[in-house]
Design brief:
Layout lengths: L2 H17 L5 H8 L5 E5 L5 H15 L14 H8 L7 H11 L9 E5 L2 H15 L7 E4 H12 L10 E2 L2 H14 L9 H13 L4 H9 L4 H19 L2 E2 L1 H14 L1 H10 L2 E4 L7 H10 L6 E5 L14 H4 L1 H4 L4 E5 L7 H6 L1
Parallel strand pairs: 1-7, 1-8, 2-3, 2-6, 4-5, 6-7
Length: about 350
């Protein structure tokens, strides 16, 4: 690498770092690491949402400029001198020029997907992105797992035999279906409470076990109850399919199936999403783990954020191994710890 190129890369990184100067060192490093798999270990109060916002800002503004050795062929000595002398408080015109000189292949907003768990967290993410980015934030896919999957299914679920205007069943709808099936199979709803049956079915779907695989796993067992639930599960899925309906778990289940069975659909979304970000990764279950891997499987520009000491959704099937084994799954992954706490008092931190 010649001297001009080295100096240009160094000056570019310094300018981008200056634009992110409100972050601490670890946060800035995380926001500027744009390429390849990245694991951010962040406890409560460490500013992880701020990092996600600034990382999206950096991507849309500078692309891979902070994490690339690419230098434009038309870069001049004058451009280099401008970047090396760039002040901390530039004029708007100078700042615009610096952005142009530092940007390397920035994605379009809809080529970034940022996934979180709750509607509240997704809403906060959208609001803060809008405050930082302006109107372009509306085109970033900032949503929950389920909202993102509904958008994917509305486009292509007909490939699985469902209507694109499929219905989403709530808990009461699902219980009514199970009650009807219990009557058809002459099973007592006291021995097979619909709520408990649906919990078993939900756990099976979280593990990406369809009715046939679930039945095979329990066929050799002497557990009469599980064998009957397998029959209920099969009948339940048939009734949903005939009504072109999905329950809450089906939304992700069928999305994974769609991406696995339809190479054209998988290629479309792997090309579409140049950058995939997932918050609270320690709370992902096996199904969400599969989905994340499929979406990021093309470019492998996957950034996951989580706390390896905390998982609040284990009762829902969350698998802490997903975050603990991230570096094994992605052998060239980088790991950054966000350890500075901005929320707790010093007494709490000392006790911790």
């Amino acid at each position: 690498m010649n001297d001009f190129k080295q100096r240009y890369i160094s000056a570019r990184k310094r300018v981008i770092a200056g634009d992110l100067r409100r972050l601490n060192d670890a946060q800035r490093q995380a926001a500027m690491a744009t390429e390849g798999p990245l694991l951010l270990l962040a406890g409560a109060g460490s500013g992880k949402t701020t990092v996600l916002i600034q990382r999206v800002y950096n991507l849309l503004t500078y692309g891979r400029g902070s994490d690339s050795d690419f230098v434009p062929e038309d870069a001049s000595e004058e451009d280099l001198a401008f970047l090396e002398a760039f002040p901390e408080a530039p004029s708007p015109l100078d700042f615009d020029r610096a952005r142009r000189l530092c940007a390397v292949d920035p994605p379009r907003p809809w080529e970034i997907i940022a996934i979180t768990f709750t509607n509240k967290a997704a809403g906060e993410l959208k609001d803060r992105l809008a405050a930082r980015l302006g109107p372009m934030a509306n085109d970033v896919w900032a949503s929950t797992f389920h909202s993102a999957c509904v958008r994917i299914l509305r486009r292509d679920i007909d490939r699985l035999g469902f209507a694109k205007d499929f219905t989403i069943y709530d808990t009461d709808d699902s219980r009514r279906v199970v009650k009807d099936i219990l009557k058809e199979l002459n099973l007592d709803d006291k021995a097979f409470p619909p709520k408990n049956v649906l919990s078993v079915i939900s756990s099976a779907k979280d593990q990406y076990l369809g009715p046939e695989e679930f039945a095979r796993r329990h066929s050799a067992e002497t557990d009469w109850r599980m064998a009957r639930i397998a029959k209920i599960y099969a009948a339940y899925q048939k009734k949903l399919a005939s009504a072109s309906a999905l329950d809450f778990d089906d939304i992700i289940f069928h999305t994974v199936t769609l991406l696995r069975q339809e190479p054209e659909v998988l290629e479309y979304y792997q090309r579409k999403f140049r950058y995939v970000l997932v918050d609270e990764y320690q709370d992902t279950n096996h199904l969400q783990y599969l989905l994340t891997g499929l979406l990021a499987g093309g470019r492998r520009n996957l950034c996951v954020v989580g706390d390896d000491d905390q998982s609040i959704y284990r009762f829902r099937g969350a698998n802490i191994e997903n975050i603990l084994n991230f570096e094994k799954q992605y052998d060239n992954a980088r790991t950054i710890r966000l350890e500075q706490n901005y929320r707790s008092t010093q007494n709490i931190l000392d006790a911790a």
